Amino acid sequence: MAWQSPKTGVLSNMNISITKISTYLECPRKYWYLYEMGLQTPKSEGFYFGSAVHEGLENYYLGKDPMEGVRNALFGKKKNIGEEPKEGIDLDKLHKEAKRIFQIYPQQAPYFKPALIEHFFKVPLIHPETKEKLPATFVGKIDLITTHDDIVDHKTASGSDTGFFKEKNDFQANGYSYAFLQMFGRLPKRFIFNFLIKGNTRRGPRIEPKILRPQLGDICTFFDTCKYALDAILRGETRDYPSSIHYRVCPAKDICPYCQGR
Ligand code: SF4
Known about the structure:
This protein has helices spanning 18-26, 28-36, 45-61, 66-75, 91-108, 166-184, 216-234, and strands at 3-4, 11-12, 14-16, 114-126, 133-146, 150-157, 190-197, 206-212. The longest helix has 19 residues, at 166-184.
């Protein structure tokens, strides 16, 4: 049943995702631009490249040609501006970089025996211990679930993991482990970030997996964070709640009065 916010009158059984909640935590006003106003902007080079490699990996684990997936993602028809690359991105260069990755991938990547590939989930948000239920559905897509109960998330990067995104990555690992628990009634054995590091003129690409083992306590923390963000969103604390830390990469930075052009 839908829930109605006493302050805003908002009815909710909204879908929330890792990206939505992370965006809210980063900057509530950014959340407002992206998810309440529907602002769409073309993808940065890093995101565009990451999506292409993801499509290649999906093909790879399905036993198909990974570069066909990469080409489709880089050069295929786009449905909306949010799928387009930013102006000036050299697609041929990205194609070459992806090719270098897939040349070394079969030898260098850990072996994952896939059970589910690009698995969409849609699960209720229920506290694993207290059974409190939130007025939202948690949705997302897991890159790979192995036959050994491991969750694998592919990430492209230009260098080794420095820990800069630790909080965001932990939140994602805990969230997907929560979804796993909801779907299968048990925790995953491991959560593996499969980092694919781009090569450059001096060195080739490389694969650097990072293993986490989320526990029940981490999953309860994930639930509590969702509850905090969801309560604030339903109270209408978005548009007029800019973060004091402005983000260089914020897609709204050119139109937002709080840090226009900075
Ligand atoms: S420009 Fe700054 S304040 Fe405005 S939405 Fe982006 S991060 Fe938030």
